[in-house]
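Re: [ENG-882] Designed sequences occasionally contain unexpected residues at chain ends

Forwarding the minimal case from QA. Structure tokens:
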């Protein structure tokens, strides 16, 4: 009996202790739960904060660089080849290409290569003459306005084939005004060699060597003797000056070939008039046309003379790959064309711009491949890639 009494007392004491402990356990459990909730809430807040910080830092780095291609004045196969090359390079590099046409009659327009681009198309209106021809000053201004439009649309780099040294100077000045970091706004020059400060890279053929190719081709056509006239030189355009230098250097090796006349012209019509005057007044066996309008103007005059049964023994060597030039080449009006790789110009230009934006090494000059094309080789596959960019 005594043992049972002790057990009952122990049980009662245990029950009393349990009753006293239970409220404390509940309080402790409540506090632990509260602490756990507070810790989880703090962890979630930290995580959200980190994600937000990471997103804010990732957006600028993750958004593709926007590169503007200011297409050469007017339209043509070279401009199309440059655009296709630039688009291919932009796609590979994850960049966004904006193309801005600097000289359509209805104004300036731009369009992104990415069809999902959300910004609306821009347009800058330009006054134009009734005959649709712009004076050089207005064409230069149209190109400068095209650059302004591209910069307004967030372009971080420019690819441009400038019309003149003055236009290029104004363009670089506008680009430098957008250079908030002071690292130098990337301006990639295509097909020209104007001595202007602020150019990141020049993508162009070796025009002196191309001139030598033209001179050598003419010497072969004439059998090493005859009289040659240069059509379309320009005393202020470095590209044409260098081509002329190469022609003269090459023909100087042939004592029986004489460079008699140089006619400055810049449009197809003015070059046709210059060629007509030359052939009316002098005995000329060969014409070396230093630019596209000159070769077309010379071919127009030879077509006219052929149709009048005056014969056509004058040989033409020109520069360019416009569709009308290729037609004249096939018909035998033009014997040779010096052709550059326009696709590579656009492709390499974008690559140089992307490298500059990524603070990588940039080549100050990239020399493009040139080839001498005739009816004998214009349909070779390698030459097809030069003449028709969609073959790339």
């Amino acid at each position: 009996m005594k043992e049972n009494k002790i057990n009952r007392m122990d049980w009662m004491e245990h029950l009393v202790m349990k009753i006293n402990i239970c409220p404390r356990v509940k309080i402790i459990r409540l506090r632990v739960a509260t602490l756990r909730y507070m810790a989880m809430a703090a962890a979630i807040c930290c995580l959200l904060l980190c994600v937000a910080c990471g997103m804010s830092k990732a957006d600028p780095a993750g958004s593709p660089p926007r590169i503007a291609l200011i297409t050469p004045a007017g339209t043509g196969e070279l401009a199309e080849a440059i655009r296709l090359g630039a688009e291919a390079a932009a796609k590979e590099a994850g960049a966004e290409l904006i193309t801005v046409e600097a000289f359509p009659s209805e104004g300036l327009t731009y369009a992104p290569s990415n069809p999902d681009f959300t910004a609306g198309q821009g347009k800058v209106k330009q006054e134009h003459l009734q005959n649709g021809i712009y004076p050089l000053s207005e064409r230069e201004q149209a190109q400068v306005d095209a650059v302004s439009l591209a910069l307004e649309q967030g372009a971080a780099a420019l690819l441009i084939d400038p019309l003149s040294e003055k236009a290029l100077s104004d363009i670089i000045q506008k680009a430098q005004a957008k250079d908030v970091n002071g690292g130098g706004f990337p301006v990639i020059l295509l097909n020209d060699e104007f001595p202007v400060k602020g150019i990141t890279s020049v993508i162009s053929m070796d025009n002196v060597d191309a001139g030598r190719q033209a001179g050598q081709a003419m010497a072969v056509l004439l059998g090493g003797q005859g009289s040659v006239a240069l059509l379309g030189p320009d005393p202020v355009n470095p590209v044409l000056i260098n081509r002329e230098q190469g022609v003269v250097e090459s023909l100087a090796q042939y004592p029986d070939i004489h460079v008699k006349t140089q006619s400055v012209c810049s449009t197809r019509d003015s070059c046709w008039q210059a060629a007509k005057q030359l052939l009316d007044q002098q005995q000329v066996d060969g014409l070396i046309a230093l630019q596209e309008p000159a070769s077309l103007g010379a071919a127009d005059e030879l077509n006219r003379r052929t149709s009048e049964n005056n014969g056509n023994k004058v040989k033409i060597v020109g520069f360019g790959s416009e569709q009308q030039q290729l037609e004249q080449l096939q018909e035998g009006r033009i014997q040779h064309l010096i052709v550059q790789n326009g696709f590579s110009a656009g492709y390499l230009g974008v690559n140089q711009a992307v490298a500059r934006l990524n603070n990588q090494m940039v080549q100050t000059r990239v020399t493009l491949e040139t080839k001498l094309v005739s009816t004998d080789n214009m349909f070779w596959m390698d030459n097809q890639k030069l003449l028709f960019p969609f073959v790339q």
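QA comment: On inspection the terminal residues look reasonable. The chain has eleven helices and 14 strands. Proposing we downgrade this to a documentation issue.
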